[in-house]
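RETRY 2/3 - previous attempt timed out on the joint model. Re-submitting the same 696-residue input unchanged.
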Amino acid sequence: MNSAHMSIPFRENSVKALGNATLRAAMKNATGVFTVKRADAVSSVPLEEWREEASQTRLKVLENLPHYVDEFESNARRAGASVHRAAGSQEARETVSSILRDRGIAKVVKSKSMVSEEIHLNSHLEQNGIAVVETDLGEYIIQIAGEHPSHIIVPAIHKDRRQVGALFAEKLACKYTDDPTVLTAIAKQVLRQEFVSARAGISGANFAVADSGTIVLFTNEGNGRMCTSLPELHIAVLSIEKMVPTLADLPKFIRLLPRSATGQLITSYMSLITGTRRPGESTGAKELHIVLLDNGRSTIVNGEYREMLKCIRCGACLNACPVYRMVGGHAYGSTYPGPMGIVLTTLLEGMNRAHPLLDATTLCGACGEVCPVKVPLPQLLRRLREQRAEEGFTPRAEQAGMSGFGLVSRNPTVFRLGQTVARAFWPIAAALNPGAAIKRLPVPAGRTFQRRMS
Amino acid sequence: MRVQLYGTCLIDTFFPETGEATVRLLRHFGVDVAYPKGQTCCGKPADSGGYTHASKKAARHFLSLFEANGDPIVIPSGSCASMVKNHYPHLFEDEQPVKRKAESVGARVYELSQFLVHVLKVHEAGLKGSGKITYHASCQLTRELGVREEPLLLLESLEGAELVHLPHADRCCGFGGTFMAKLPEVSMAMADEKAETILSTGADTVTGCDHGCLMNIADAMRRQGAGVKVKHLAVVLAEGIR
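RETRY 2/3 succeeded.
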């Protein structure tokens, strides 16, 4: 994950994943459950209208992003928050660590945040002597296993309960059990102690409301609320495109995000945090810092891939992707996996590193079909493949082959000659390339359809 | 009624029997089938790979063959039909006259099952069939052309055949054009799962509207040593008019 100059070995990673029977079974099971639940949850609502409205709202933000970010910043400040702009990952990490260091804080509790993964916040804090405790159950499992999330909303989707049982027995010195209820209770007990003793909490944000300076968190475990209201200091790290114009726009997403993500009609806990604790309030952070991460988004928003930034991180495209469900998220070697991850990783980390990911799609269109904000994922994937070819990131033989294809496809005589040659040399080619794609195709017919029709 | 038939390069090269079945079927229902000479590939493989310069050449050639008259163009493949209908116009955003030509040619394109149901009403003809048949819904057919019901209507109408539901019928089989060559392990894993799902239905025949997928599924069936027959929808239907 840290070797920024090397391209991601997706094929090697995928072969490794395919050999992992536990992972494959867990992936099939979980993505299957989420897909069915999502389908149920959207079956009786005017989904197309909702998607269109949500998409338009996201586009409206992106068309005028600097304006909404400024508006959010001034309103958040007015409500008592400190707002920090970070151009890149390093600046964002250092902003967070210096806030903590200045206050002598050695431990933070953390609510799930993919942006914090994007900037590699945990390892940075740990290197600076600050302990990090992930409090979302899935994130906690991943953290004590020393791994990274393999799904943007279900970080431990690739693990089954037996693996979690063994992990808890080893790391938490408890008796082995694979009963999810007992395992949850064990984690809860550990995490409660952390919540009570932590002086700072870190969260991400699902949305940020520009006209009120509010940050919005959706969680299912209540841990987000604990992280942001129990400790005296709250640091929220979010990327700039999370803006929605007004509070009145929020319901468009309240109804769509959980339905698309897990098939829930609404999230279990929704926190709207506007500024710091006010006089007379008994909970809430006394000090709130909001770190707004750009990391290339100001450039992306002005280019042809703008619509990628509509994404609200529901994970529906991951669950729907036939490739993702086979290999899991770690094969993508990046913070964001699956269809949205391929596009976003290429945009954030560059073609040089991400180009192999562009093979990890059949362009089947399932992602585009489920996206609640109508990100045209298949079109973006195809366009990125076009850019990849233009920039010379595909094998030379493939480039030559495709140029040849172009010439042959406009010349029927050469095309027919090619068919004859293919027919003649097929058995030899198949014999020379054991395991190659050619062996999986049938032998060309003796008389082509064209000849039969002439 | 007259149509222009585009044979597709896969059918032309590997599955001429499917082309012949398509012709037999159309003629049986009184259609005069014209087969423009000089057909090649529609350009889909290059286009999906991002090689627009190559797919544009194929597109221009296709348009030159099929712009001649206003007859419907019948294509026995969802992915080729969608390539012409949905993708050609985007290839020529900076050449408006060609784009308009692509749009007018595209407007005449029917995927075979679309044409059989909406124009010829073949599903009301009471064709004969046999055995237990299941149906794989290919990706571009389903999600780009929106053809979901038509093949099922046709199969349900076969007298003497039983249509059995395929779970996750519209889940990709792992063909994906160059995908099968680029990530063969993932592709085969996907195809194997598709084959297992097909086997679980107890069907003796699996059919579909795209030979790319059917080829991939047939290969998975061979790997698994399964005896399920893999046939294009045109072949299944044409068997009923012999």
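The radius of gyration of chain B is 17 Å. Closing ticket.
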